[in-house]
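Help: why these numbers?

___
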Amino acid sequence: RDDTGEPIFLRDRLNASSHQAMTVVVALGLGWCGGAGERVLPLLGGGGLVLPMALLASGLRQTMRVLAVEMDKTATELAMQFFGAATEPRLRVEEADALDFVCRGRLPSDVPVPAVLIDIDFLRGGAIPETFGSADFWRPAWLCALGSALGGGGAGLVAVNTIGAGPELVDALAATALSHAPTDGTILAAGVFEPCGSADRSLRGGW
């Protein structure tokens, strides 16, 4: 709240643990990106644009632009009307289906990408959607993350919000994503932030 007691929106705060984890991924990716010039961060699933607004409220705004893909026009309009998104010149919002956006090859390929963020609860229904588990989605996603068009200028990081999924489904998604990764000798690994309530799963190697 402000000095008068009125509620205000704090752009630099992230309460969701999934958004906090994605922020760590972006920070790592910015350090690993190759090439010169500014970076572009693709965010599939803009929602209320909380995550990109918080990232751009930090010092990251000096070296990064955010491309958010959100199909819900109402969510975007509310974010722009009440959360200040319309005043952020380094945020571009594309109104489109995120899966279709990727499959049609519309992810950036000519600038370094610190990470590809997928902030949509695709797994809440208890199964991996067909397109989300397909090579048509994951191959262009990996090519963007790895910066293949730039000779490897990307950080090679993909972060997925797995809200609503159990450990077995998260494992299946990681295996699916890696099965569609480039096979040119690039070394890849999948790390999983456990879904809430599943932290008692025993640890095992081979990730």
About this structure: The chain is about 30% helix and 10% strand. Residues 19 and 134 are 25 Å apart (CA to CA). Residues 17-32 form the longest helix (16 residues). The radius of gyration is 17 Å.
